[in-house]
Write a structure and sequence with these properties.
It is found in: Cytoplasm. One of its GO terms (molecular function) is phosphoribosylformylglycinamidine synthase activity. The chain has 83 residues and is of the alpha+beta class. The chain has a single domain, classed as Mth169, Chain: A (2-Layer Sandwich). It is built from two helices and three strands; from the N terminus they run βαβαβ. The chain is elongated, with a radius of gyration of 16 Å. The N and C termini lie close together (10 Å).
């Protein structure tokens, strides 16, 4: 079985309290070189058989219409996951 990965991130202008909380904690555990953190979502869609361009197009449609909220999120990536 093959998988398609969809990555969704908050739009840059949307506040990200979870990312901010993580960014604030990184120095506490000794990681001081990171200046910002943005959190997102990753979906893995499993398909029977091979990932085709048609299946990728369907995944893009699902990402745009169901997996993301286009008001506050951007679909960043839709691709076949290599095993």
């Amino acid at each position: 079985m093959a998988r398609i990965v969809v990555d969704v991130m908050l739009k840059p202008e949307i506040l990200d309290p979870q990312g901010k909380a993580i960014a604030n904690e990184l120095p506490r555990i000794g990681l001081k070189n990171f200046t910002d953190v943005r959190q997102g979502k990753r979906f893995e869609l499993t398909v029977d058989g091979e990932v085709t361009e048609e299946l990728l197009a369907q995944a893009r449609e699902a990402a745009a219409e169901l997996l993301s909220n286009p008001v506050i999120e951007d679909v960043i990536n839709v691709e076949a996951l290599e095993d």
